Amino acid sequence: MNAFRLAGDMTHLLSIVLLLLKIRTMRSCAGISLKTQELYVIVFASRYLDLFAKFFSVYNSIMKMIFLGSSVSIVWYMRYHKVVRQTYNKDEDTFRHHFLVLPCFILALLVHRHFTFIEILWTFSLYLEAVAILPQLVLLQRSSNIDNLTGTYVFLLGYAI
């Protein structure tokens, strides 16, 4: 196992745990960009499409399920939980995130290792992950009050990339 990959996985996992901790304990998603979380669902869904087709290791399979499941659960909390969704500030989260998806996909079609369906989706997920934090950064710039958990989450998320 690559030490850098392990460090990146653990840092990203810690950022997710902090975010879920904030949402569950404070019953709030204030300061969190739903658009960034939706982009991460797309990133992990396209990257881990091979989860059921190809087995690499137990660690790999577990981390894929954790990243995908936690991303979906964060989006669910922010969209559908009756208390948490009321704390989401739609007026500050105005980044047009859908404009990031198509350019990343076109870039993946043009710049990739092999022209296969799985490889294109995997490459697309890399490009999209590189810009997925932009809506969160714009939201933080517009927001006047950033709590410690949100700041730490963004720091760890940026550090994991």
TrEMBL record:
Q: Which InterPro entries match?
A: ER_ret_rcpt (IPR000133)
| GO MF term list | ER retention sequence binding
Q: Which UniProt keywords apply?
A: Endoplasmic reticulum, ER-Golgi transport, Membrane, Protein transport, Receptor, Transmembrane, Transmembrane helix, Transport
Where in or outside the cell? Endoplasmic reticulum membrane
**UniProt record, GO biological process:** protein retention in ER lumen; protein transport; vesicle-mediated transport
Q: Which GO terms describe its cellular component?
A: endoplasmic reticulum membrane
Q: Which residues cross the membrane?
A: 55-78, 99-115, 121-140
Topology term for the membrane: Multi-pass membrane protein
Q: Which family does it belong to?
A: Belongs to the ERD2 family.
Name of the protein: ER lumen protein-retaining receptor
